[in-house]
Design a protein that fits this description.
This protein has 165 residues and is α/β, with parallel strands linked by helices. The chain has one domain: YbaK/aminoacyl-tRNA synthetase-associated domain (YbaK protein, Alpha-Beta Complex), CATH 3.90.960. The protein contains 5 helices and 8 strands; from the N terminus they run αβαββαβαβββαβ. A hairpin with a 5-residue loop joins strand 6 and strand 7. The relative contact order is 0.24. The structure holds 5'-O-(N-(L-cysteinyl)-sulfamoyl)adenosine (5CA).
Length: 165
């Protein structure tokens, strides 16, 4: 799989944020898309479950943003997150995601937002040695351990997935 020798500006920004916070994680930017979990897993050559989806939801009462770091293999149960968050939540639109994180859907990294965001971390991510998260663009990702993901986000470990129907 081909990678880019120089990072685009958004991916470079994520690389610098990681470094500044002491995380030794190399951002990798591919020539092909990592926009979806499936594409990211294919580019990297890992399982779908190892991809970290950074999903932004919106509190329907207060409008507060909620970040759910979800295993690429899972679907979030919005009712469950609503219970954790203390109010019903809904999926955010692209504009809200950009306003809250500073990044566009498909490239939202798990760190580096203008304001801290209430964060939940899918317990299913903890079983892997290495995870891969988006790094600012729909072609860029970086590897990290579950412990690093917890440290960089302060996320509360939670059961987030909807039960298979
Ligand atoms: N780069 C990949 C793998 S790390 C990535 O960013 N995946 S993601 O799951 O974190 O981001 C894509 C997610 O954004 C999709 O799973 C989907 O839930 C959400 N999404 C896609 N399009 C929209 C949209 N128009 N409005 C709101 N959410 C969307």
């Amino acid at each position: 799989m081909e990678t880019r020798s120089t990072l685009s500006p958004s991916a470079q920004k994520v690389q610098e944020m990681l470094r500044a916070r002491g995380f030794d994680c190399p951002v990798v930017e591919f020539t092909e898309s990592t926009r979806t979990s499936a594409e990211a897993a294919e580019r990297v050559g890992c399982s779908l479950g190892q991809i970290v989806k950074s999903l932004i939801f919106r509190g329907q009462t207060t409008g507060k943003p909620v970040l759910v770091l979800t295993s690429g293999a899972n679907r979030v149960d919005e009712a469950v997150i609503g219970e954790y968050a203390g109010e019903p939540i809904g999926r955010a639109d692209a504009e809200f995601v950009r306003a809250v994180t500073g990044f566009a859907i498909g490239g939202v990294p798990p760190l580096g937002y203008p304001q801290p965001v209430e964060t939940y971390l899918d317990e299913d991510l903890l079983q892997y040695e290495v995870l891969w998260a988006a790094a600012g663009t729909p072609n860029a990702v970086f590897p990290l351990t579950p412990a690093q993901l917890q440290a960089m986000t302060g996320g509360r470990v939670a059961t987030v997935k909807s039960k298979p129907t």
